[in-house]
Prior knowledge:
Layout: E1 3-6, E2 25-27, E3 30-32, H1 35-40, H2 47-54, H3 59-67, H4 76-88, H5 96-113, H6 116-123, E4 129-132, H7 139-144, H8 154-165, H9 174-184
Parallel strand pairs: 1-4
Antiparallel strand pairs: 2-3
Helix pairs in contact: 5-8, 5-9
Amino acid sequence: MAEVSFYRASEKPFGAFSNLYRRPIQIHGQAFASAEFGYQSLKPRDDAVRDWLLAAPSPSLLAIAAHAMPSDDLDPAQLMARTADALLGFHTRSGWSRLRYPWMLQCLNAKFTQHRDLAALLLSTGDATIIEAGRIDDDAGRRWGIVNGRGANYLGRMLMRQRQVLGGPPHADEDLDARLAAGQADL
């Protein structure tokens, strides 16, 4: 099966699949400068932190700041991050580890239904496997993409699901379905 990979928003043509690609979206009546801004808007529980993040001058700076906020996953790296969280005063929304999956899909849906050219680009991939070919080998990089041959590639899998929603080929993914269902009620 063919593969389509992307990472940087500036890569032609598939960099447009990156959440850092600058294309405004609207979700629930709120405008965001990019899918990354929309996605990260739900992460903080504190409105002041949310406003600070959303004031970032670029999607990449927003992502860097937001990735410093710990998740509510319980593993050693996250526990260390929670220490930093307490010291820095950042507070991640309760349940974020479940919410992030259906919220990301909502952001992608907004991006690809509000921009016909992006929908056409996504549909042009046919039945290819879409892979976010990450460069940063950390938890977030391996969650959303594949880095150094390892990762869950949830962003690529959600793009394939969005392609299906737009009329592309079916994309069966029981693990993704379970994660989407687990967080949907909390949105």
